[in-house]
Fold this sequence. Notes:
The protein is of the alpha/beta class. The chain has 15 helices and 15 strands.
Amino acid sequence: MRCGTIWRNARLATMMGDDLGIVDSGVVAAADGRIVYAGPAGDAPDFGPATEVECGGRWITPGLIDCHTHLVHAGNRAGEFAARLAGASYEEIARAGGGIVSTMRATRGASEDALVAGALPRLDALIAEGVTTVEVKSGYGLTAEHEAKMLHAARRLADERDVRVATTFLGAHALPPEFAGDADGYVDSVCAQIPALAAAGLADAVDAFCEGIGFTPAQVDRVFAAAHAAGLPVKLHAEQLSALGGASLAARHGALSADHLEHATNADVAAMAAAGTVAVLLPGAYYFMRETQAPPIAAFRAAGVPIALATDCNPGTSPLTSPLLVMNMAATLFRLTVEEALRGLTVNAARALGLQAEIGTLEVGKACDLAIWNVSELAELVYRIGFNPLHSRIRNGR
Length: 398
């Protein structure tokens, strides 16, 4: 068998099957950026001449996948954070020009080059902890011009760094000041943007914020219909602050994922299970906003709904760029197991992006995206706080 690189003397967590697919004495081999073998050393074929990497018994997992971020934006909201700590309410901050509108103004005022430059340090932090694929949403421009600018900037991140970038159009994120009192008119504008973004290849999916402070299920339904007409899959911010049936709506549209889900009902869980919609949990936002109602983890488990995890990196509610901390938060705040946490940032995160045929497991034919860890047991990746044991990161076999 021809290959370019072989990683020997490794312990593998292939993420195959119902468990982590552990191989205690394993080998991974790659050719042309693809995995050609991943399994027990004793069963490995003769690879012929190849570059060999001695792993010294280290663990290899698939490269981590951050399937929900708002990585591209301008400015920050540290001042609002300080104001909340001093007793200001969300409404008071919003009336003073804060909240999403604050980020919108900064993002509209930034050039595409500035947005790329601002996002790179955040992206570098993710890469440093083993991330090989990241999803990036728009949603802070809130006009056709500035939403497209954000998506162009997101695409450019893959030119600046060796990382796979999936882009999501989140025009229905908040109501811009120009449409105050006319949410339906703004939804018309969002729907009208989708065909051009799809034709230009700027968006891989369409998302919306279904909440009392966002958009109604009926308005989201219109956005999703426009996405389907343009051939784009959908995702949804749902059930974060209230139970509006957004997760069930997402499932009816065959959504890749419904995200947040603190207030998801049994009906939502059943609908998601039937549709194969992934539950993307965002413990960073739950922690930062000091929420008290956790997502219905037991119901997701019982129904067989895949659980993914993500940083939700954003300037207002989850200024987080550590997937390792996300796993610890998911375990401590939501009581996920080590296995669930690891699957949440690999195989299930791939499903949440519709990329399960390409990434997420150590499997023949998939991209050779690996994270190699200096740990003696996998639980260390979830257990430690503020410690990065990444030994090396491999992207497309390099």
